[in-house]
Specification:
Length: about 375
């Protein structure tokens, strides 16, 4: 994996400058031929590679407008290619096409920020063409765009609106029809269980049956030692629980990315999420919880949105326990809920969820200097 800067290659003279170019990376020559022929009819210039290593070699001479690659390839896999391209060409959009049933592989490339993911076999070529068009258009209109998961399946503009014609509904329909695939994807997208910044360590533990729609947790370190996180009960979203969970993840990432250097307000986040849910038929109200831990002030703020929790202070002398009520669900006006702020955490503590039946969740925040 290379992190060093490199000179951007010049466009090869064999490539038509008036046509948008697509690099097609797949070890299946039949699939490549079929897709290349189809893309040519759409007036795209196509460059072919049979594996990831060959693709990187071609990138030395020509940087295309978009890369479409398979996951399972010899010599250098699609996962390795996505990782390499994400470092060398962070603004280059990518689409992964794969027949893999292992959602852990899909989650890996999503975390590297691929533009889109399509499953093989591609029965609707128009869906393929639409995904390519959407990726190229966003790349053109947002030249400083850096790939991240928030672009997956949902396109949100600055005001939080989500135009229906830009949504990739076939992804969500596929997940709705395949419960196991949807569940595996949500579980595979969970972040590392332990994370540390300076003298503070945060770790979470989820206990739940493998066959149930999961509790979905995600977090991000902000500026000045702040730790933002959320928890969503995907099972509470009924038929659209998976789509709603993915939408929340997308909007959370957008919110954090655009406001990383400012003091993000939990109600601002909730308002954005509520607007996003109202803008699509693929999402519906769901139980959630949001929080920001300020490591400098030594305090925790929680906005409930349908999930009840307790904060246990890690201080044997006081043994403080703060209950945080359930509140209104996300999507039903949770911005009206009271934000429990300034919860003490000089040494740290445990945020524990209540009333989850056969499931449990605990977030532990620990000040390592107090050991």
């Amino acid at each position: 994996m290379h992190k060093s800067s490199m000179t951007i290659p010049q466009v090869d003279s064999a490539v038509n400058r008036d046509m948008q170019s697509i690099m097609l990376v797949d070890d299946d020559p039949i699939f490549r031929t079929m897709m290349a022929t189809f893309l040519s009819t759409k007036n795209y210039q196509v460059v072919e590679a049979s594996n990831g290593l060959e693709a990187l070699q071609l990138l030395r001479d020509h940087v295309p407008d978009l890369i479409v690659c398979d996951l399972d390839m010899p010599i250098m896999s699609g996962i390795e290619l996505v990782e390499e391209v994400s470092w060398q060409f962070p603004m280059l959009p990518m689409i992964v096409v794969s027949a893999t049933e292992d959602m852990r592989d899909v989650a890996k490339v999503l975390r590297f920020g691929i533009k889109d993911f399509l499953t093989k076999p591609i029965s609707q070529l128009q869906n393929f063409a639409s995904a390519i068009h959407t990726s190229l258009e966003e790349s053109k209109t947002n030249p400083s765009f850096s790939r991240d998961f928030s672009s997956q399946w949902f396109n949100i503009n600055e005001s939080g609106d989500m135009p229906e014609e830009k949504e990739l509904y076939w992804h969500l329909n596929h997940l709705k029809e395949h419960d196991v695939t949807a569940r595996d994807l949500l579980q595979a997208l969970q972040p590392p269980r332990d994370t540390q910044q300076g003298r503070w360590r945060c770790s979470y533990h989820i206990l739940q049956p493998a066959e149930a729609m999961p509790l979905v947790f995600d977090y991000s370190w902000l500026m000045e030692g702040r730790f933002a996180f959320y928890l969503v009960d995907a099972a509470s979203g009924e038929d659209n629980g998976v789509a709603t969970s993915l939408l929340i993840r997308a909007l959370f990432n957008d919110f954090i990315r655009t406001r990383k250097q400012s003091h993000s307000d939990l109600k601002d986040l909730a308002e954005l999420l509520e607007k996003g849910i109202s803008c699509t038929d693929c999402a519906e109200p769901i139980k959630a919880l949001f929080g920001i831990a300020d490591m400098v002030d030594g305090s925790l703020s929680i906005l409930p949105a349908g999930l009840e929790s307790h904060w246990y202070v890690a201080d044997d002398a006081t043994g403080k326990n703060q209950a945080i009520e359930t509140g209104i669900e996300l999507g039903k006006g949770c911005v009206k809920n009271f934000v429990t702020s300034d919860l003490p955490m000089r040494r740290g503590g445990d945020l524990v969820l209540s009333d989850l039946g056969f499931r449990s969740f605990k977030l532990t925040i620990k000040n390592l200097t107090c050991d």
